[in-house]
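User: Please predict the structure of the protein below. I'd like the answer in C-alpha coordinate form so I can feed it into my own downstream comparison script.

Assistant: Understood. Taking the following sequence of 399 residues as input:
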Amino acid sequence: MPILRVPMLDPDRQLFAYEIIFPRKPGDEKTLLQDVLSIITDGALSRLVRGNRAFLNLPAALLPEDADILKHQPRIGLMLQPDVAGDAALMKRLQQMAERDCQLMLDASDIELDGSMAVEALLQIVQSVRLDANRMTPERLKECSEQLHARGLWVIAGQVDDHETYQRCLGMSFKAIQGRYLLIPEPTAVPVLTANRLSMLRLMRIMQESNPGPVEIGDIVKDDAILSYKLLSCVNSAYFALPRQLKSVQHAAIFFGVSRMRNWVDAMALCGMDDRPPELLRAALIRAKMCEKLAAVTPGCQPDMAFTVGLFSLLDTLMCAPMEFLLTHLHLMPEISQALTGEGGPYAPLLQKILAWEAGKLTSEQTLPQVIQRMAAIYLDAMQWADQVYASSSDKPAA
Protein backbone atom coordinates (compact mmCIF):
# COMPACT_ATOMS: atom_id res chain seq x y z
CA MET A 1 0.00 0.00 0.00
CA PRO A 2 1.17 3.60 -0.53
CA ILE A 3 3.15 4.86 2.48
CA LEU A 4 5.45 7.79 3.10
CA ARG A 5 7.85 7.77 6.05
CA VAL A 6 8.71 11.34 7.02
CA PRO A 7 11.22 11.91 9.84
CA MET A 8 11.07 14.39 12.71
CA LEU A 9 14.56 15.16 14.06
CA ASP A 10 15.50 16.41 17.51
CA PRO A 11 17.79 19.47 17.90
CA ASP A 12 20.80 17.12 17.74
CA ARG A 13 19.56 15.91 14.31
CA GLN A 14 18.76 12.45 15.65
CA LEU A 15 15.44 10.75 14.95
CA PHE A 16 12.62 11.69 17.32
CA ALA A 17 9.79 10.01 15.40
CA TYR A 18 8.45 9.17 11.98
CA GLU A 19 5.18 10.47 10.60
CA ILE A 20 3.58 7.72 8.52
CA ILE A 21 1.48 9.20 5.73
CA PHE A 22 -0.89 7.17 3.57
CA PRO A 23 -1.43 8.90 0.19
CA ARG A 24 -4.99 8.26 -0.90
CA LYS A 25 -7.79 9.39 -3.18
CA PRO A 26 -11.33 10.24 -1.99
CA GLY A 27 -13.54 7.19 -1.75
CA ASP A 28 -10.93 4.58 -0.87
CA GLU A 29 -11.26 4.95 2.93
CA LYS A 30 -12.55 1.42 3.52
CA THR A 31 -9.70 -0.20 1.60
CA LEU A 32 -7.19 2.10 3.27
CA LEU A 33 -8.43 1.16 6.75
CA GLN A 34 -8.10 -2.55 5.97
CA ASP A 35 -4.58 -2.01 4.65
CA VAL A 36 -3.53 0.06 7.68
CA LEU A 37 -4.82 -2.49 10.16
CA SER A 38 -3.12 -5.24 8.17
CA ILE A 39 0.33 -3.64 8.25
CA ILE A 40 -0.05 -3.04 12.00
CA THR A 41 -1.11 -6.56 12.88
CA ASP A 42 1.35 -8.42 10.63
CA GLY A 43 4.32 -6.45 11.94
CA ALA A 44 5.17 -4.73 8.65
CA LEU A 45 4.83 -1.29 10.22
CA SER A 46 7.14 -2.21 13.08
CA ARG A 47 9.77 -3.32 10.59
CA LEU A 48 9.27 -0.12 8.63
CA VAL A 49 9.92 2.13 11.61
CA ARG A 50 12.57 -0.18 13.14
CA GLY A 51 11.19 0.12 16.67
CA ASN A 52 11.25 3.92 16.63
CA ARG A 53 8.38 6.17 17.64
CA ALA A 54 5.90 6.72 14.79
CA PHE A 55 2.63 8.60 14.30
CA LEU A 56 0.00 7.43 11.80
CA ASN A 57 -1.55 10.31 9.88
CA LEU A 58 -5.09 9.09 9.21
CA PRO A 59 -8.43 10.84 8.69
CA ALA A 60 -10.65 10.77 11.78
CA ALA A 61 -13.06 8.31 10.18
CA LEU A 62 -10.27 5.75 9.96
CA LEU A 63 -8.97 5.91 13.52
CA PRO A 64 -8.98 2.33 14.84
CA GLU A 65 -12.12 1.55 16.82
CA ASP A 66 -10.28 -1.09 18.79
CA ALA A 67 -7.63 0.69 20.83
CA ASP A 68 -6.06 -2.66 21.68
CA ILE A 69 -4.57 -2.74 18.17
CA LEU A 70 -2.27 0.10 19.17
CA LYS A 71 -2.03 -0.89 22.84
CA HIS A 72 0.36 -3.65 21.84
CA GLN A 73 2.37 -1.18 19.73
CA PRO A 74 3.52 1.32 22.38
CA ARG A 75 5.82 3.18 19.98
CA ILE A 76 3.08 3.73 17.39
CA GLY A 77 0.64 6.58 17.92
CA LEU A 78 -1.83 8.74 16.03
CA MET A 79 -1.63 12.18 14.44
CA LEU A 80 -4.90 14.01 15.20
CA GLN A 81 -6.50 16.80 13.20
CA PRO A 82 -8.36 19.56 15.10
CA ASP A 83 -11.76 18.56 13.68
CA VAL A 84 -11.85 15.46 15.89
CA ALA A 85 -12.77 17.79 18.76
CA GLY A 86 -16.24 18.19 17.25
CA ASP A 87 -17.06 14.47 17.42
CA ALA A 88 -18.10 13.57 20.98
CA ALA A 89 -18.02 9.81 20.41
CA LEU A 90 -14.58 9.98 18.83
CA MET A 91 -13.25 12.21 21.61
CA LYS A 92 -14.46 9.67 24.18
CA ARG A 93 -12.63 6.92 22.31
CA LEU A 94 -9.47 9.03 22.09
CA GLN A 95 -9.69 9.70 25.82
CA GLN A 96 -9.78 5.95 26.43
CA MET A 97 -6.78 5.46 24.12
CA ALA A 98 -4.84 8.16 25.98
CA GLU A 99 -5.61 6.44 29.29
CA ARG A 100 -4.13 3.26 27.80
CA ASP A 101 -0.91 5.21 27.04
CA CYS A 102 -1.47 5.47 23.29
CA GLN A 103 0.72 8.28 21.93
CA LEU A 104 -1.36 11.10 20.45
CA MET A 105 -0.08 14.17 18.59
CA LEU A 106 -2.22 17.16 17.63
CA ASP A 107 -1.48 18.72 14.25
CA ALA A 108 -2.29 22.32 15.20
CA SER A 109 -1.52 23.84 11.79
CA ASP A 110 -4.97 25.34 11.21
CA ILE A 111 -6.16 26.40 14.66
CA GLU A 112 -5.63 28.97 17.37
CA LEU A 113 -4.38 27.39 20.56
CA ASP A 114 -6.17 29.60 23.08
CA GLY A 115 -9.74 30.42 23.98
CA SER A 116 -11.42 27.28 22.66
CA MET A 117 -12.93 24.59 24.89
CA ALA A 118 -12.65 22.07 22.05
CA VAL A 119 -8.95 22.75 21.61
CA GLU A 120 -8.45 22.63 25.36
CA ALA A 121 -10.11 19.22 25.46
CA LEU A 122 -7.66 17.99 22.84
CA LEU A 123 -4.66 19.43 24.66
CA GLN A 124 -5.74 17.50 27.74
CA ILE A 125 -5.33 14.12 26.01
CA VAL A 126 -2.38 14.57 23.63
CA GLN A 127 1.27 14.30 24.62
CA SER A 128 2.64 16.40 21.75
CA VAL A 129 1.61 19.17 19.37
CA ARG A 130 2.90 20.07 15.91
CA LEU A 131 2.95 23.74 14.89
CA ASP A 132 3.23 25.06 11.33
CA ALA A 133 6.46 27.08 11.15
CA ASN A 134 5.66 28.14 7.59
CA ARG A 135 2.28 29.63 8.43
CA MET A 136 3.03 31.31 11.78
CA THR A 137 5.11 34.42 12.32
CA PRO A 138 8.39 33.83 14.19
CA GLU A 139 7.00 35.72 17.20
CA ARG A 140 3.78 33.70 17.30
CA LEU A 141 5.69 30.44 16.77
CA LYS A 142 7.94 31.20 19.72
CA GLU A 143 5.02 32.24 21.92
CA CYS A 144 2.98 29.11 21.17
CA SER A 145 5.95 26.75 21.58
CA GLU A 146 6.74 28.24 24.99
CA GLN A 147 3.10 28.04 26.14
CA LEU A 148 2.77 24.41 25.12
CA HIS A 149 6.17 23.48 26.53
CA ALA A 150 5.18 25.05 29.86
CA ARG A 151 2.19 22.69 29.94
CA GLY A 152 4.52 19.72 29.76
CA LEU A 153 3.76 18.93 26.11
CA TRP A 154 6.31 17.99 23.49
CA VAL A 155 6.23 20.59 20.71
CA ILE A 156 7.25 19.86 17.12
CA ALA A 157 7.98 22.47 14.46
CA GLY A 158 6.44 21.35 11.17
CA GLN A 159 6.79 22.68 7.62
CA VAL A 160 10.34 23.88 8.22
CA ASP A 161 11.38 24.17 4.61
CA ASP A 162 14.47 26.38 4.69
CA HIS A 163 17.59 26.65 6.82
CA GLU A 164 16.84 30.15 8.07
CA THR A 165 13.62 28.92 9.68
CA TYR A 166 15.44 25.82 10.93
CA GLN A 167 18.07 27.91 12.70
CA ARG A 168 15.33 30.00 14.32
CA CYS A 169 13.56 26.87 15.54
CA LEU A 170 16.74 25.61 17.18
CA GLY A 171 16.52 28.52 19.60
CA MET A 172 12.93 27.72 20.60
CA SER A 173 11.31 25.12 22.85
CA PHE A 174 10.95 22.38 20.24
CA LYS A 175 11.36 18.68 20.89
CA ALA A 176 11.73 18.01 17.16
CA ILE A 177 11.80 19.73 13.78
CA GLN A 178 10.27 18.41 10.56
CA GLY A 179 10.40 19.70 7.00
CA ARG A 180 12.11 19.89 3.63
CA TYR A 181 15.11 21.74 5.12
CA LEU A 182 16.72 18.33 5.66
CA LEU A 183 16.94 17.66 1.92
CA ILE A 184 18.18 21.03 0.65
CA PRO A 185 21.77 22.35 0.76
CA GLU A 186 22.77 24.79 3.46
CA PRO A 187 23.78 28.16 1.97
CA THR A 188 27.54 28.64 1.96
CA ALA A 189 29.63 31.55 0.68
CA VAL A 190 32.75 29.51 -0.13
CA PRO A 191 32.62 25.70 -0.33
CA VAL A 192 35.28 24.04 1.82
CA LEU A 193 35.86 20.29 1.64
CA THR A 194 37.62 18.57 4.51
CA ALA A 195 40.45 16.13 3.82
CA ASN A 196 38.08 13.26 4.59
CA ARG A 197 35.50 14.45 2.06
CA LEU A 198 38.14 15.07 -0.61
CA SER A 199 39.37 11.52 -0.04
CA MET A 200 35.80 10.25 -0.39
CA LEU A 201 35.34 12.13 -3.67
CA ARG A 202 38.61 10.71 -4.99
CA LEU A 203 37.41 7.19 -4.18
CA MET A 204 34.11 7.83 -5.97
CA ARG A 205 35.92 9.31 -8.96
CA ILE A 206 38.16 6.25 -9.27
CA MET A 207 35.15 3.95 -9.06
CA GLN A 208 33.34 5.92 -11.78
CA GLU A 209 36.26 6.58 -14.14
CA SER A 210 38.35 3.43 -14.10
CA ASN A 211 35.49 0.96 -14.70
CA PRO A 212 37.18 -1.55 -12.38
CA GLY A 213 36.69 -5.30 -12.47
CA PRO A 214 36.34 -7.52 -9.38
CA VAL A 215 40.10 -7.66 -8.74
CA GLU A 216 40.50 -3.90 -9.18
CA ILE A 217 37.58 -3.17 -6.83
CA GLY A 218 39.18 -5.40 -4.22
CA ASP A 219 42.50 -3.59 -4.66
CA ILE A 220 40.90 -0.13 -4.45
CA VAL A 221 39.03 -0.93 -1.24
CA LYS A 222 41.54 -3.19 0.52
CA ASP A 223 43.53 -0.32 2.04
CA ASP A 224 40.41 0.95 3.82
CA ALA A 225 39.83 -1.72 6.46
CA ILE A 226 36.66 -0.11 7.81
CA LEU A 227 35.07 0.28 4.36
CA SER A 228 35.95 -3.33 3.48
CA TYR A 229 34.45 -4.55 6.74
CA LYS A 230 31.23 -2.60 6.20
CA LEU A 231 30.83 -3.84 2.63
CA LEU A 232 31.24 -7.46 3.70
CA SER A 233 28.97 -6.94 6.68
CA CYS A 234 26.29 -5.63 4.32
CA VAL A 235 26.51 -8.31 1.63
CA ASN A 236 26.63 -11.11 4.22
CA SER A 237 23.66 -9.78 6.20
CA ALA A 238 20.44 -11.73 6.62
CA TYR A 239 18.75 -9.30 4.18
CA PHE A 240 20.44 -11.02 1.21
CA ALA A 241 20.22 -14.56 2.65
CA LEU A 242 23.29 -15.81 0.78
CA PRO A 243 23.87 -19.57 0.66
CA ARG A 244 27.45 -19.03 1.88
CA GLN A 245 29.46 -16.22 3.41
CA LEU A 246 31.56 -14.09 1.07
CA LYS A 247 35.10 -13.69 2.39
CA SER A 248 36.39 -10.76 0.34
CA VAL A 249 35.23 -7.68 -1.56
CA GLN A 250 36.58 -9.30 -4.74
CA HIS A 251 34.39 -12.38 -4.18
CA ALA A 252 31.40 -10.10 -3.48
CA ALA A 253 32.00 -8.23 -6.76
CA ILE A 254 32.06 -11.55 -8.63
CA PHE A 255 28.89 -12.78 -6.91
CA PHE A 256 26.80 -9.58 -7.16
CA GLY A 257 28.38 -8.07 -10.27
CA VAL A 258 30.83 -5.22 -10.72
CA SER A 259 28.23 -2.49 -11.33
CA ARG A 260 26.29 -3.27 -8.18
CA MET A 261 29.42 -3.51 -6.04
CA ARG A 262 30.72 -0.20 -7.42
CA ASN A 263 27.45 1.43 -6.40
CA TRP A 264 27.64 -0.10 -2.94
CA VAL A 265 31.17 1.24 -2.46
CA ASP A 266 29.83 4.74 -3.18
CA ALA A 267 26.89 4.17 -0.83
CA MET A 268 29.05 2.89 2.03
CA ALA A 269 31.50 5.75 1.56
CA LEU A 270 28.71 8.31 1.94
CA CYS A 271 27.32 6.49 4.96
CA GLY A 272 30.68 7.01 6.62
CA MET A 273 29.86 10.72 7.00
CA ASP A 274 29.10 10.61 10.71
CA ASP A 275 28.70 14.41 10.90
CA ARG A 276 25.53 14.35 8.79
CA PRO A 277 22.01 13.42 9.98
CA PRO A 278 21.41 9.66 9.63
CA GLU A 279 17.98 10.30 8.09
CA LEU A 280 19.60 12.39 5.34
CA LEU A 281 21.92 9.50 4.53
CA ARG A 282 18.96 7.11 4.48
CA ALA A 283 17.13 9.48 2.13
CA ALA A 284 20.05 9.33 -0.34
CA LEU A 285 20.05 5.53 -0.19
CA ILE A 286 16.28 5.37 -0.72
CA ARG A 287 16.54 7.63 -3.78
CA ALA A 288 19.37 5.50 -5.17
CA LYS A 289 17.42 2.26 -4.91
CA MET A 290 14.21 3.82 -6.25
CA CYS A 291 16.06 5.22 -9.27
CA GLU A 292 17.62 1.82 -9.90
CA LYS A 293 14.23 0.08 -9.72
CA LEU A 294 12.54 2.63 -12.00
CA ALA A 295 15.35 2.41 -14.55
CA ALA A 296 14.93 -1.37 -14.75
CA VAL A 297 11.51 -0.84 -16.39
CA THR A 298 12.37 2.32 -18.35
CA PRO A 299 13.68 1.93 -21.93
CA GLY A 300 17.02 3.61 -22.54
CA CYS A 301 18.05 3.71 -18.85
CA GLN A 302 20.71 1.63 -17.12
CA PRO A 303 19.96 0.70 -13.49
CA ASP A 304 23.57 1.20 -12.31
CA MET A 305 23.71 4.74 -13.73
CA ALA A 306 20.27 5.50 -12.31
CA PHE A 307 21.47 4.34 -8.89
CA THR A 308 24.28 6.90 -9.04
CA VAL A 309 21.82 9.64 -10.00
CA GLY A 310 19.64 8.89 -6.99
CA LEU A 311 22.53 8.51 -4.56
CA PHE A 312 24.31 11.67 -5.70
CA SER A 313 21.10 13.74 -5.90
CA LEU A 314 21.71 14.74 -2.27
CA LEU A 315 25.49 15.07 -2.61
CA ASP A 316 25.37 18.88 -2.35
CA THR A 317 23.34 18.64 0.86
CA LEU A 318 25.62 15.95 2.29
CA MET A 319 28.85 17.75 1.37
CA CYS A 320 27.61 21.29 2.10
CA ALA A 321 28.86 22.44 -1.30
CA PRO A 322 27.22 23.38 -4.66
CA MET A 323 26.51 20.46 -6.99
CA GLU A 324 28.42 22.03 -9.91
CA PHE A 325 31.50 22.38 -7.69
CA LEU A 326 31.34 18.75 -6.57
CA LEU A 327 30.90 17.46 -10.11
CA THR A 328 34.25 18.96 -11.08
CA HIS A 329 35.80 16.47 -8.63
CA LEU A 330 33.90 13.46 -9.96
CA HIS A 331 33.86 13.54 -13.79
CA LEU A 332 30.63 11.57 -14.07
CA MET A 333 29.00 10.35 -17.26
CA PRO A 334 27.21 13.28 -19.01
CA GLU A 335 23.80 11.66 -18.58
CA ILE A 336 24.32 11.50 -14.81
CA SER A 337 25.60 15.07 -14.54
CA GLN A 338 22.69 16.37 -16.61
CA ALA A 339 20.15 14.83 -14.23
CA LEU A 340 21.97 16.15 -11.16
CA THR A 341 22.16 19.73 -12.49
CA GLY A 342 18.62 19.87 -13.85
CA GLU A 343 19.70 19.89 -17.49
CA GLY A 344 17.51 16.98 -18.53
CA GLY A 345 18.72 13.74 -20.03
CA PRO A 346 17.24 10.23 -19.76
CA TYR A 347 17.54 10.01 -15.95
CA ALA A 348 16.00 13.36 -15.06
CA PRO A 349 12.38 12.10 -15.33
CA LEU A 350 13.18 9.24 -12.93
CA LEU A 351 14.61 11.64 -10.35
CA GLN A 352 11.73 14.06 -10.77
CA LYS A 353 9.21 11.26 -10.21
CA ILE A 354 10.95 10.35 -6.94
CA LEU A 355 11.04 13.98 -5.79
CA ALA A 356 7.32 14.29 -6.50
CA TRP A 357 6.66 11.10 -4.53
CA GLU A 358 8.66 12.43 -1.55
CA ALA A 359 6.79 15.73 -1.57
CA GLY A 360 3.36 14.15 -2.10
CA LYS A 361 2.94 16.20 -5.30
CA LEU A 362 2.21 13.59 -7.93
CA THR A 363 0.79 14.55 -11.31
CA SER A 364 -2.65 13.28 -12.35
CA GLU A 365 -0.99 10.57 -14.45
CA GLN A 366 1.14 9.51 -11.49
CA THR A 367 -1.93 9.08 -9.27
CA LEU A 368 -3.41 6.29 -11.40
CA PRO A 369 -3.93 3.26 -9.10
CA GLN A 370 -1.50 1.03 -10.98
CA VAL A 371 1.18 3.74 -10.92
CA ILE A 372 0.68 4.39 -7.20
CA GLN A 373 0.89 0.70 -6.37
CA ARG A 374 4.08 0.28 -8.39
CA MET A 375 5.70 3.34 -6.82
CA ALA A 376 4.63 2.20 -3.35
CA ALA A 377 6.20 -1.22 -3.86
CA ILE A 378 9.43 0.37 -5.11
CA TYR A 379 9.48 2.83 -2.19
CA LEU A 380 8.91 0.15 0.45
CA ASP A 381 11.60 -2.07 -1.02
CA ALA A 382 13.99 0.90 -1.18
CA MET A 383 13.33 1.82 2.45
CA GLN A 384 14.04 -1.71 3.67
CA TRP A 385 17.22 -1.90 1.58
CA ALA A 386 18.37 1.54 2.76
CA ASP A 387 17.76 0.66 6.41
CA GLN A 388 19.79 -2.53 6.00
CA VAL A 389 22.68 -0.80 4.23
CA TYR A 390 22.79 2.02 6.76
CA ALA A 391 22.69 -0.45 9.64
CA SER A 392 25.66 -2.27 8.10
CA SER A 393 27.52 1.01 7.63
CA SER A 394 26.98 1.85 11.29
CA ASP A 395 28.34 -1.49 12.45
CA LYS A 396 31.90 -1.14 13.72
CA PRO A 397 34.56 -3.86 13.40
CA ALA A 398 35.69 -5.49 16.61
CA ALA A 399 38.82 -3.97 18.10
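That's the full C-alpha coordinate string. The chain has a mean pLDDT of 87.
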